[in-house]
Each structure stands twice: as C-alpha cells, then as structure tokens.
Task: structure prediction
Amino acid sequence: GAVVSQHPSRVICKSGTSVKIECRSLDFQATTMFWYRQFPKKSLMLMATSNEGSKATYEQGVEKDKFLINHASLTLSTLTVTSAHPEDSSFYICSAPGPHGYTFGSGTRLTVV
Amino acid sequence: GESVGLHLPTLSVQEGDNSIINCAYSNSASDYFIWYKQESGKGPQFIIDIRSNMDKRQGQRVTVLLNKTVKHLSLQIAATQPGDSAVYFCAENMGWGSARQLTFGSGTQLTVLP
Result:
C-alpha cells in the first residue's frame, strides 16, 4: 500500500535553532501534503497544505515565517520550524492523499529545550 | 466554522465485549467519513471509511454506521481486544476529487480491560 515516510521520529533541539521535518511518499506521487500539529490528548489540527510547485496554504493563526513548508518534488515535502521555542514542542504529522485514501506519516515528536 | 466532534472522550470496555464509539458532525455537505486509530506516539491508522450514499459499511471486526438525518457516525468494534486500546478519531471530508483536507474530531480514548 501507499506509504509516507516521515523523519525524524523524535528530535530535541535548543531554543532558537531550526528543525526540518521530512515527509516522503515512497510508492506514489504526492502533489499535496497536509501538515498537522497535535498536542497531548488532543486532536490533529491542520497547519498548512503544501502543493508541489506552488506556495503552501496556511491555516488561520499559523505563522508562515515560523513554519516554513517546501514541496520541492512530487515525493517530498518538508516542514521547517524556525527559531524554535518551547511552545513549539508538539507532535507533527504529515498526510498525503494517495491511491488508497489518505496516508499518514508516523509523526515527529519535537521537544524544544 | 463547522466541525466534527465526539460525544465521549473516554471509553473502557471489557476484553471480548463490543465497543461503540460515536461521532457527531455538523457539516451537512460532508460526503466522506473516515475512522482512524492512533496509538501513542504514532500517526493515525486507517480503520474504515464510508461515503454519504451509504449508511453502513463493514470491515474485519469493525462496522461504521452513518445517520445523515442526525449527522451521526459510529464505529463498532466487535470482540474488543487489548490491541484495540488507542485513541479513535472520526474525520470528515467534502470530496475526494478536490483533495480537501480532513477535519478531525476530538478523539475517544478506548481502554480495553482484561
């Protein structure tokens, strides 16, 4: 079946540094990638939608300069958390519409210290 | 905006019993619904889906019921097993062709008791 590979699964970084999260579609082309953020014991909240070859669409309240999204190819979308702060600590998940429905990455646990 | 919500945040069931997880949605234009299972520290895992032209769909040990009249969705798990313990989310979508993003409900934590 369709697989979205997300890396890293866990990352700890210092405040002020940037962290890049990658999502790759392994056996299908993902022209669209959805990026979600999830707080403990909460639901998934859509942050932005990336589209290959065009600018990402951000949800209301999500800082574009804070969460940089790049969709450089049909199989790769990246989310960069810039100048990370402790309040950015969260679980980040990507998802792509694939041939068998929406496929989710395994998530990235970001901890900013 | 319209949103999807769940009735119960937690549900505990005895191993072997049937589980029923409910979801209410408010977007009458939604035509596609999905149930996901999420284990701790992992991404959501597809369980079963249903389109609005159906009112019931069965999978392996799972059944999804859709009542469009009252905008209600339920997930039934038969003979619940310890491995079913997880958070379950319903999600709605307004159409596949537009690759519209999914809107998730708040989730129900299912705990299977031995």
Summary: Residues 35 and 94 of chain B are 15 Å apart (CA to CA). Chain B is about 0% helix and 55% strand.
